Amino acid sequence: MTVKSASRRKHRGRLILLLPVLLLAAFLFGLARFASNIPTQSEKPGESVDAVVVWTGGSGRLDQGLKLLEEERAERLFVSGVYHGVEVDELLEVAARNPEELRCCIELGYAAGNTRENAQETGEWARHNELRSLRLVTAAYHMPRSLLELRRAIPGVEILAEPVFPDAFRQEDWRWRARSLALLMNEYAKYLIASVRRPLPLTDEAGAEGTRP
């Protein structure tokens, strides 16, 4: 083996050893940027929309959606990812709301079992009702991926972010809290996958049964 070929092998070996470090650095840099894009407040809080959309799966989401409906910030509320068999009155009772006041303005979707399917189900509902603007209620850390998926599903529809802030994620100091850091890293990884994945085809039909995402 010549000195030149040995030097090249040594150089390649260093690059191979360095690659995981570079990938980790890129991931951490992207994670920090992702965290900086997590919303800290409602988008255009005084603006009314055609409908409020709640994606089930976390604390505070349904309450916030109902609050917006009660405040007449929208004429209707759509809840995506509801357990099959659950009805509007049951949700309102759990949320300690009067069914007689709100039942007429709420629709439920049962076809979604994850975020991507939430977007598909919501998109089908929005197109069916010819809506031009929505306010999406979900957890703050979940909002970037949710907006990505929903804007793919219904391009041209204005979508405003209405984040809720669950206790499981401490946005102000996520770097120093193991639970918040793990939650954010998991969500960022899912966001990266969603970014490169092909969108689901637009359809007008939803499945007959869904689960909580």
Characterize this entry briefly.
This protein is of the alpha/beta class and 213 residues long. Helices cover 46% and strands 13% of the residues.
Give the biggest beta sheet: 5 strands, parallel
* Overall average residue pLDDT: 85
For the termini, the CA-CA separation is 58 Å
**Approximate strand percentage:** 5-15%
The amount of helix comes to 40-55%
What is the molecular shape?
elongated
By DSSP (H or I, 4+ residues per run), the number of helices equals 7
Question: Count of DSSP E strands?
Answer: 5
User: Which architecture name of the domain at 51-196 does CATH use?
Assistant: 3-Layer(aba) Sandwich
Radius of gyration: 21 Å
Structural class by sheet pairing and helices: alpha/beta
CATH class of the domain at 51-196: Alpha Beta
Contiguous uncertain segments of 5+ residues = 205-213
Largest sheet, spatial ordering of strands = 3-2-1-4-5
What string, H for helix and E for strand, traces the elements in order?
HEHEHHEHEHEH
CATH fold name of the domain at 51-196, please?
Answer: Rossmann fold
Model description:
With 213 residues, this protein is of the alpha/beta class. It has a domain at 51-196: 3-Layer(aba) Sandwich (Rossmann fold). It is 46% helix and 13% strand. It contains seven helices and five strands. It has helices at residues 3-36, 61-70, 88-94, 99-102, 115-128, 143-153, 178-196; strands at 51-55, 77-80, 106-109, 133-139, 158-164. Strands 3-2-1-4-5 form a five-stranded parallel β-sheet, sandwiched between helices. Strand 4 (133-139), helix 6 and strand 5 (158-164) form a beta-alpha-beta unit. The radius of gyration is 21 Å and the shape is elongated. 34% of the residues are buried. Residues 205-213 have low confidence and may be disordered.
